[in-house]
Design goal:
223 residues, alpha+beta, Ferredoxin Thioredoxin Reductase, Rieske Iron-sulfur Protein, four-stranded antiparallel β-sheet, three-stranded antiparallel β-sheet, 4 helices, 12 strands, binds iron/sulfur cluster, binds FE2/S2 (inorganic) cluster
Length: 223
């Protein structure tokens, strides 16, 4: 018998916390997670999701920031675990702590923030192996176009748009720590975004690599 949970459906108006729990718990069990054992906390998070559902039309995560890009934002509709499975497995919880790994006995240590963070957010951007050595990879994070570069084991993230005439730096030529824009040859340091042209440095973003996954930290997107 197939005991897989039914595919995700959109929740209707009038959905209750009990409805969410009834749908989500079997779904996350299949992924190795369970509801936080702190029932009051779990209830509060689900209640926030109901408020978001009533206001914004779906159960967007209460502790993540939406980008405004529907293709991106679908990844933070609860339960978002399939999109962040490796990371949540490493953390032993989802971002908010609504769900914890099945082997965690005491969910009290795993309660996360449930307000939207004010500061920068860390976003899963690619697998290291997606970035060919000494080549660029264009990724979109919300409305931002970012070029990822890899030299050896180091990964760097900078704005993909050349400050001369918006050439795509991800398609540029990389030598050492320098990328040359494919359109007219401006050169940028991939570690700092610096170019010798005045006031034309491109923005860089902090990068962390965990278990082969590249996470890029970007400022909180504007809605
Ligand atoms: S982080 Fe947790 S609460 Fe937020 S959408 Fe993902 S599973 Fe739901
Ligand atoms: S657009 Fe990059 S050098 Fe002209």
């Amino acid at each position: 018998m197939n005991d897989r949970p039914a595919p995700r459906r959109r929740f209707a108006e009038g959905t209750t916390v009990a409805d969410l729990e009834a749908y989500m718990v079997p779904f996350v069990r299949h992924l190795g997670f369970k509801l936080n054992t702190e029932r009051e906390f779990a209830h509060e998070v689900l209640q926030s999701e109901i408020e978001i559902l009533d206001r914004d039309g779906d159960v967007y995560c209460p502790c993540r920031v939406r980008t405004g890009d529907p293709k991106e934002d679908i990844k933070i509709i609860c339960p978002c675990i399939p999109f962040y499975l490796e990371q949540f497995n490493a953390m032993r919880k989802c971002w908010c702590g609504l769900f914890i790994r099945e082997d965690v006995l005491d969910g009290a240590e795993m309660m996360g923030v449930i307000e939207e963070p004010e500061g920068p957010i860390e976003v899963r951007a690619a697998h290291v192996e997606d970035i060919a050595a000494s080549r660029g990879l264009r990724v979109k994070i919300g409305k931002r176009e970012i070029a990822l570069f890899r030299t050896g084991n180091e990964v760097f993230a900078l704005s993909n748009l050349c400050r001369h005439a918006f050439g795509p730096l991800s398609e540029g030529y990389v030598e050492g720590y320098e990328v040359m824009c494919p359109w007219h040859g401006w050169r940028y340091d991939i570690r700092t975004g610096h170019t010798d042209h005045p006031n034309a440095d491109v923005q860089t973003h902090p990068v962390t690599v965990r278990d082969g996954v590249v996470f890029v930290t970007v400022p909180k997107p504007t809605e």
